[in-house]
Structures are given as structure tokens and as C-alpha cells.
Amino acid sequence: MPYKDIPEDNMIICPHCGQEVPHKNRCPNCGQYLPRREKKKWKIPKMTPTEIFLAILGSIMLMVGLVAF
Questions:
Q1: Least CB-packed of 13, 14, 19, 22 within 10 Å?
Q2: C-alpha–C-alpha distance, residues 11 and 2, integer Å
Q3: Concatenated DSSP letters for 48-64?
Q4: pLDDT per position in the chain (69 positions), as tens?
Q5: pTM above 0.70, yes or no
Q6: Strand partners, 33
Q7: Structural domain tally of the chain?
Q8: Host domain of residue 22
């Protein structure tokens, strides 16, 4: 049973029946629960202490500028 209206990135292979199905809570073919999607993780840049200080200082200066306006 092809699912033509579903985008390719939303399709997965069911680990129970082996069919390509849309990513939902249950497989529409065999009725078994499908694995959950992995949540996107935040990428936190590695910053040196100087960069952290300058980021905080820049934020403070921006707030002072907004209050003074």
C-alpha cells in the first residue's frame, strides 16, 4: 500500500513488518507501536571565557540602550 501524499522524510520502515509507513504512533499495516522520533538537540557553541564575558557585556549594553531610548 503506497503512501504517495506523505513526504519522504516522514516515512520510516516498521521494525515489526518491514513495510515503509508514515511515522505515526502505530503501524497502519501490522498495528504494532512504532519507535518514537528522536528529539532535536540544541547545539551549544563552545565559548571561551572571553567570549562569554563579551556576550554578557553586549547584552547589558543593549539593554541600557533600550532603556535609555
A1: 13
A2: 11
A3: -HHHHHHHHHHHHHHHH
A4: 555 555 566 788 888 888 888 878 888 888 888 888 777 788 878 999 999 999 999 999 999 988 876
A5: no
A6: 26
A7: 1
A8: 8-36+44-68
